[in-house]
Input
Amino acid sequence: MSIRVTLTNVFLAGTLWFATSVSAVADDATANISAAAGYDELATTISAIVQREMEDKKINALSIALVDGSQTVWAQGFGWQDARKEQPATAQTVFRVGSVSKLFTDVALMQWFEQGKVDLDRPVSDILTGFHPRTRFEAPITLRQLMAHRAGIVREPPLGHYFDDSSPTLATTVASLNESDAVFEPASRTKYSNAGVSVVGLVVEQLAGKPFADAVDESILQPLGMSSSGFVLRDGWVERIADAEMWTYDGRSFPAPTFTLGTLPAGNLYSSVIDLAEFAKAICGSATKNQASLLRSETWELMMTPQFEQQYKGFGLGFHLSELDVLPAVGHGGAVYGFSTQFLVLPEQQLAVVVATSRDLSNGIAKRIAEHTMRSLLTQKNVAGVKFPAWETSTEIPPLRARQLDGLYRDESTHKEFELRERNGELFLLGEELERRLGWQQDHLVCDDCFGFGPELYLDVNQSIRRNDKQYSRVDRRLPSPLPERYQGLVGEYGWDHNTLYVYERGGQLHCLIEWFFHYPLTEVGEGVFAFPDYGLYEGEQLRFGPTNNGNARYVRAASVQFDRRTLGAEDGSTFRIAPTASIDELRRDALAARPAESLTHSELASDLVELVRLDGTIHFDIRYATQNNFMGVEFYDQPRAFLQRPAAEAVVRAHRKLNQLGYGLLIHDAYRPWYVTKMFWDATPAEQKIFVANPATGSRHNRGCAIDLTLFDLNTGKAVDMGAGYDEFSPRAFPDYPVAHSRARYHRELLRDAMEAEGFTIYEHEWWHFDYGQWRKYPVMNTPFESLR
Output
């Protein structure tokens, strides 16, 4: 089907018809817009949903705006604009709106099209004479193709790409495309490209004779009164930008980077939902008195018409085209460092919803809220063909049940597998493009997280799981084969602190984790050359590993972007070292003279330390702090001994004996630790590495005799197994859920974790080797040296 946007009574002979209805009232105290008459119940319902989902998905700030005709009938902020939780978020809070930026770029180009200054179907190289990406195809690249993501060029340019924090100029960014190769023949298929829309932006810049950001500000933002918006930072609203948060699967979170993207026209717009509501009104054709007409009605219609599809889907000129139930919908999503946006417009109904959040890749929940709000409004208006919106939720899976479901599942007909993994009482679905958190809904499991709601998994009585009409049976996890030798120098980390590419092996095949969240299997197509799969962000593109240095690839060019190898920990397997902040003698003197706070020494249970070797002589020991083989290179203990509170010690022995049945045993590195040693560790460690040491002000669980550092050893060889990172390595590789480079090391980490958690221990979030016994709070912090213990 094709769309014809109904603009009758809106544009008359190309002139804007101004609606006379009254907008909702702005609340100056909070910079929100209270619900207009007739919308208050809807606003109350959506507010409750938003607040629940923000808490569940850990979203710090979310703003929403609802447009009906010429009115912004409701606009509200939720949560906190700043990370310190001192400034509430409002509808005037500013977000980076990511790829919603593309709509403004394409509208700016179409303004020149209306003036007859540009032909959508002429080769772009006729306009940008220096634009010549390498290609094996004869067909030229046109503006129409670029705007509809049909040019077949790379997703990201070699310079100014999404990862590039050097912020090159737009001209430099586009020029770098001459060093890239075409992926697909122009017009042949959709290939989403930030690089392509950046080329469109450079055309706008050239036609306007001024910087792109200034050109769009003058032609779109100012006429619409979007005073809190801009492609570059402007005075007057910078202080209202929400603090955005990045997060990772392995438990890290950090402030989002703020560098300007080289692909400025494709993803660098800042705006508020109130401002985006003004843009939505212009699209609908119902503008307020202060707005000017951006485009003629027939131009809007062209932009919302499928360009290379017979059906109403894919892309028009800039707009993503879809259907909401039976109704044509246009808009775009946006995802950029720490921000997620959903911009949804129903042109025929002259309705729009805008949702923006300050948590990285929370697009799934932003889209879900936007669509639910729209369906609620349509139902209220009795629009035919719209499903009544029921907001589905899930409940927490009981931790014991999550632990029972933890396992590997396989469909024997297709040999496809997935894993369910219990993590700190929650259950996750692994083995897909995204790692999904699961919840419980009535009689089945359902994915429910920032990425969205669904799919569903149904439990059968024989411990199998039904998913997408396939039956997956639980199978034993198998010891993976060793890492293939030809991959030894390829696996590891590449790129930047703010955006790291992980190359790892699974099932004998290389995979990558890119942009923090997207797992892709790689197909080997040549020596050091691997192809992305035929789906996802980088469809049709490749990874090419560079020359080696000490056996490791120095870099990998993934989808035309060069990621340099990162060095973590001790790559040669030696013990990790830090540079202490003071001399060891000074640290020891100060620590021995100090005492733990008296409040820490009181407890519910009396200490009953027992030496582990007396309970089981087959446990192995390598007490590093009684030697110089540790992260500071000095001896801390006079004796190589390991003590634990009796219940914890007995639990360790049980875990060791169960592991014996699988061919492994436990190797102990540390257990009870006198408080003064903890103080030495804390005082010696630089601030940026203190997550790996305990604060003596609160005491360590080691000081209570309820924490143990340990690993596995092979019963046949007596040697410690490879865990993908050494003991006491102060790097992200130490994190329990770090994407370890090879599957055998991941298997061993999970085996150790499962064995310890089954006996009442919990793993420390930053160290795969550190486990705390469940009753640690009941025991006192102690400062007794080993020689005083029996």
In short: The longest strand covers residues 327-336.
